[in-house]
Amino acid sequence: MYAALTVMVLLALTVPASADAGLGALIAFAFLPASTSASVIAAASSLITLGISVGVSYLAAALLAPSTRAPTPQEVKTTLRNSVGSRWRHYGHVLVGGSMAMTEAKDGDLHRVIAFASHKMHAQLGWVIDGRGVAVDGAGWVTSAPYPANTVRIEYRPGDASQTAYSSLVSALGSPYWTTDHRGDGVAHAYLRARNTEPEQLSATYPNRFPELQGIFEGAEVYDPRTASVGYTANLALGLRDYLTHVDGLQIDPAYIDDADFIAAADASDVPVPIKVGGTIPRYYGALSYKYDAEPQSVLSRFITMCDGDIRLKPNGKIGFSVGVWVEPTVTITDEQIIDIDLSDGGGPLREANEYRLKYTDTSQYWAEVEAEPWRIEDEISDYGEVRSVPIEAYEVQHHNLARRLMKIAAFRGSPRWQGKIKTTLAGLRAWDQRWIRVQIADMEIDETFEVSGVEFDMASMTVVLGIASFSAAAYTFDPATEEGTAPTAAEAVPESTLPVPADFAATGSSIAVSDGVSTPAIIATWTEASRPGIRVEVQYANQSDGIWQPGGSADDGEQRLLVLGLANGATYDVRGRNVGVGSASGWVTISGVTATADSAAPAAPVITSLSGTTSASITWKMPNSPNVVAARVYRGPTGAFPGPGGDISGPIYGAPNALGSYDDSPGAGPWYYWVKAENGSGVQSAADGPETITLS
Predict the structure, then answer these.
(1) Which helix (H) or strand (E) holds 110?
(2) Model confidence over 637-655: pLDDT tens digits?
(3) Nearest-CA neighbor of 465 among 346, 342, 328, 314?
(4) pTM of this prediction?
(5) Are 240 and 143 members of one domain?
(6) At 491, is the secondary structure helix, strand, or coil?
(7) Which of 42, 81, 329, 695 counts the highest number of beta carbons within 10 A?
């Protein structure tokens, strides 16, 4: 029996005091159950005597009421640092920033906790850092360029009623800064850890100095009376029902919600409609975010605007809702029921606007605020030589097709053939909960459909005044091929400042003489000079035996060569180079398998002087007269073909230039072939002397 009074509370929140006088008596008497107590009727009657009046259409009330400005997409995406952060609720597919719950720096790492919503998010779909979509691995480390490995990490809690603290943050900061009690139960939040980088990578990695984190989510889970279940949806008819009943919304008892109406509105919203490029989208869908302290009329008007919605008090005392879908009127007001007429022509030169410009959210541009192609009445603009523009903010809309449909509806509503008021007998009360009625006035040749914008009931004269404006099904017909227009295209993204890798980068083994007859191994890296000024080349090397990269030095702008020293003689290396500018660096270009030698000149070949023996072989040779010779090696094979490195049977046998060397070998019976090679200190070998052959028994 409190249904009507509950609706009055809703109206007190949403309808301005200046609303038209009217229907208090109807609420107090006509729609209260027969069993209503005298005290409740008396309370309702007192409201009437105080002059409280209720407009039938909440749509008109919400749009006319003073309200706070709706948040723009950029405001929803921004992460703010406040002493007390705002509490948000998000419906639909959203990209959001949040409130900085904590920010600390320790040991060169930045630690931040960002709260996104004061409720559980259905799903987390992606992360954006400084406007760049990033991928993360299973541990939360960002793997996308330009972030170096293990530099930025994101951990997440969805907003469950009971959550756990971030153990890594507890370990990093410890008590009292962060403990296991810092759980954030019921709040969707993330922990961002950002490590320091090399100076030349700093501006590319952190272009805003401190990383700004945003999340892509499927928002709040809401109750769906169609299935009697709770789940995610982008159907904002269901989002509105949630707002009306939620403890952090208008807190209306669900018993006072006409679920039959909301079911019909949700079904109508889900109907697929064709779009210009092919395929379909739901008739009405989108996303809406609101702060818990937002003015209710502002939030209601946003729900209503994005689906051409209409909230009304039903004869059953419940709150009903419909979306913009044409329904043929069931109530007709005729000449016999009309007492007075005050209608005027709202079209032609009297039209309030001939151009409609709607701002919406483009999810393909990271939820950017964009303006749809305007809906223009070109004939009237041409005839009257004046553009009268009406701006519409509908950031809850996420598709150009819906934006254009809403502008078309607004254009019809903004230029009615007839608009004004008619005074009727009590028959006009039948229009109380009707969005559209048919009006027939023979003298004015009117027999058409009208939208009901208000009802006034005069108890003294027992008459009803209806606010009406011409409206028809044509407002909802839509041909995407000819009426959808062209969606705004994303501005071509300015590529981030990136450096190319060094052109023609190469690396070769070499040696450098450090004194008479003494050389040290080296690697010479070369490249083509960069076309941009101010670019230096950095070189690193890694011994293939351990793979550890070591700094090889850097060359200033204009240089095209770098000498790498400090290498192991005869070792094989991988060498890499990159361009480095102010605050940025290119990727690496790598050359593999470079051998560093202190002496690249091969000595002359030795001379085998004898090979003898019966059961074992004894071979002697003379070292060449080469100043860089340091050793010789003996090779053996079963045939006259040189066996290669695998045939080395002696290893290095050290000796001076012109010295004699010898080696004894017992390979077993058979014919055998022998060779000898000399080598320098870098292992560079001479040609082989041989083969000499011997048959052993």
Answers:
(1) strand 109-117
(2) 999 999 999 999 999 999 9
(3) 342
(4) 0.68
(5) no
(6) coil
(7) 329
